[in-house]
Design brief:
CATH superfamily of one domain: Serum amyloid A protein
CATH architecture of one domain: Orthogonal Bundle
CATH topology of one domain: Topoisomerase I, Chain A, domain 4
Protein name: Serum amyloid A protein
Keywords: Acute phase, HDL, Signal
Structural class: mainly alpha
Organism: Lates calcarifer
Number of helices: 5
Radius of gyration: 19 Å
Strand content: under 5%
Order of helices and strands: HHHHH
Distance between the termini: 58 Å
Number of strands: 0
Function: Major acute phase reactant. Apolipoprotein of the HDL complex.
Pfam families: SAA
CATH class of one domain: Mainly Alpha
Largest sheet: none
Length: 121
């Protein structure tokens, strides 16, 4: 009986600290944040705004927690890998990845905001 109680207590301690059950929810929310930033970028159609939307999508996703940060990293890396394979310039990909990383680290995405971009975004 003592072993059973000790096991239950250990499970409760680990569960509350790890909060592993939140990861998939955060990942889904982070993926949605990435999609929202992409949709806003397409809607805005604003010159030199792509780095801002990269940073914003990663920032918003990372704010969700570990799952959101993971989703942002996977989506960003996959997108850049596909872009490189399709023959888009490596220098553009590097700049996008810098903006992605900037946002995922919790830095202000407005650092990349172009002048005149409507406040809606």
């Amino acid at each position: 009986m003592k072993l059973f109680v000790a096991g239950v207590v250990l499970i409760l301690i680990v569960e509350t600290n790890a909060q592993w059950y939140k990861f998939p929810i955060e990942a889904a929310q982070g993926a949605h944040d990435m999609w929202q930033a992409y949709s806003d970028m397409r809607e805005a159609n604003w010159k030199n705004s792509d780095k801002y939307f990269h940073a914003r999508g990663n920032y918003d996703a990372a704010q969700r927690g570990a799952g959101g940060r993971w989703a942002a990293e996977v989506i960003s890396n996959t997108r850049e890998w596909v872009q490189e394979k399709m023959g888009h310039g490596a220098e553009g990909s590097e700049a996008d990845q810098r903006a992605n990383h900037w946002g995922r680290e919790g830095n202000d995405p407005n650092h990349f905001r172009p002048a005149g971009l409507p406040e809606k975004y």
